[in-house]
């Protein structure tokens, strides 16, 4: 373990941006010959909620582990609250809160006992009752952890993450396992924390969650950031989506191409057999709809349930993460499945990385 005295003598460090809570430049992280994070750069302003999105195996969990100080980067520069999270780990951890994908609890302890025991490791920790009320677990304080639902265990994870009133809060899949009401209550809590000045870095598979909460998002794929910006910026120029149930007797190959400038757009089919939905991604809606209705009239087909909407964050996510299956209801990506094993290795090795 490096001593704080030694790490404090690093004269090559760049002065931190006082307006940034997180600064990442050229981050690379490898496991043997496999490179999980491949030259990632981004920053998170103080008081901002930044959502880092990506499929399993995209590298986002590995990137978070570096930011949280659990792994030394293979290459690149990382600063958290102006400090190196690896070299200055103890100093950083006093000022951040971390909610991991899975927390390790003793099932025999009650909720209250779990928080009380955690408080013993934190200087200036908040009162147990106060924190449990904040995450809507006040009524479950005397319940053994082993009797909690999956969503309640996630709320207990969150209670431990905010015990030290962190300046910067890392939330890794915070609402997994929660019912819709609990998820909305957690969103409310996160918004309250932000209103009090807490900076939040969020990873989530619920894209609606990112749209609701995030000031900015970044979408990772295959270890790189494919796009970043506000939700509006990420959606800008993504056009519209036209979809409708596949008419009876019509095959996918019978559907027309729709005009898109000097090019044309082929439909993408989704849904279960017998309940397929045809979808088009178009830049200009009116010419595409006119062409679709001309085809339907000529083919004697009625288009019931036709829907036109703007692109969503989910559309962009699927386009970037699964370009060969964009807009399909059930995309598949063998590379993502292969890479997922690497992210699993990263999580399994988590405890070994803590100094």
List keywords for this structure.
single chain; alpha/beta; Rossmann fold; 2 domains; six-stranded mixed sheet; four-stranded antiparallel sheet; elongated; disordered N terminus; disordered C terminus
Describe the model.
The protein is an alpha/beta fold and 355 residues long. It has two domains: 4-234, Rossmann fold (3-Layer(aba) Sandwich), CATH 3.40.50.300; 237-338. Helices cover 33% and strands 25% of the residues. The protein is built from 13 helices and 15 strands. The protein has helices at 4-7, 60-67, 89-93, 111-119, 128-134, 150-161, 180-195, 207-213, 231-235, 285-299, 313-321, 334-348, 350-353, and strands at 20-31, 34-45, 49-54, 75-80, 96-99, 168-172, 199-203, 216-221, 224-229, 240-245, 258-260, 263-265, 268-270, 277-282, 307-310. The strands form four sheets. It has a six-stranded mixed β-sheet with strand order 5-6-7-3-8-9, with helices on both faces. A four-stranded antiparallel β-sheet has the order 13-14-10-15. A hairpin with a 2-residue loop joins strand 11 (258-260) and strand 12. It is elongated and about 75 Å long. The model is unreliable at 1-14 and 325-355 (pLDDT under 50).
